[in-house]
Amino acid sequence: MASGSGDGGRIRFDQDGYVGVLTLDRPAKLNAATRSMSAELLELIPRIDEDPSIRAVVVTGAGERAFSVGSDIGELDRYDGPWHFRNRRDYCDALRSLRTPVIAAVNGYAYGGGLELALSCDIRLASSAASFAAAEIKLGWIGGGGVTALLAASVPASDAATLLLTGDPIDAAEALRIGLVSKILAPDDLSPAATELAHRIAARPPVAAAAAKANLRAAWSMGLEAAIQYERELQAVALGTHDAAEGRAAFAERRTGIFEGR
Fold first, then answer.
1. CA–CA separation, 22 and 246 (whole Å)
2. 85 has a pLDDT exceeding 80
3. N or C, which end of the chain has less CB nearby within 10 Å?
4. Kind and range of the H or E element at 235?
5. CA separation (Å) from 151 to 29, 33, 53, 126, 132?
6. How far apart are CA 141 and CA 121, in angstroms?
């Protein structure tokens, strides 16, 4: 897949086998997202989900300093007013809409919308040089890409409140302590580790992986009994697939399954 380019940065998408790597490519501006980059992502996301050759995605930032520092503040005044800003098509919404499993490889600053972008991924790995901040409050507003709900679902309440009310950054070690990330890696090891994990996920039956992701998302918003019932419905769908039959056959024959996503 190709994506656009220009002075406002771009979204770069590369593919390695069944794994796609999505890179915010504006390193001179710490991968701050422009409106054109958001538009690219909004166009790219449905194409990823519709492509059966992509079974897992890694999201990262170009360069060594930043994952992303969120929206380019210099572009905020380009909106006609608060109502138009409120109704914008948001890049975090786009990423969160993916049915395909997504891993964030956080290689530096994840501030503001960059934190929200990382939180919109299913799994977060961090470089030892990474740092995280819900920095909008220092400028007079709050995040709008899901940061409050996603932090509340990811870390203890007191830690979420501290991040949201101070806007101060935390380092990778603190992010690991509170459960914001799953693992810390040396900077040179981050990309290989994220890609290796993506390949492991991509080797699983795609329908089952998508169902597991959908079930996790549902568990955030449903009550216990409704979430368990939803899980059983997804289980029934998955059990009826060709891949589930192949998985049972492979288990009985003591071989590796060959999964086709159907």
1. 31
2. no
3. C
4. helix 224-239
5. 25, 21, 32, 16, 12
6. 23
Please tell me whether residue 232 adopts helix, strand or coil conformation. Answer: helix
- In this structure, are residues 141 and 171 in contact, taking their beta carbons and an 8 Å threshold? no
pTM above 0.85, yes or no: yes
**Banded model confidence at residue 7, pLDDT cuts 50, 70, 90:** low
Name 262's Cβ contacts closer than 8 Å, sequence gap at least 6: 207, 241, 242, 243
- What are the CA-CA distances from residue 134 to residues 4, 15, 19, 174, 180 (Å)? 29, 31, 29, 14, 13
Please give the order of strands across the beta sheet that includes 66-68.
66-68, 109-111, 131-133, 170-171
Q: 3-state DSSP call for residue 121? A: coil
Mean predicted confidence (pLDDT) in 96-115:
96
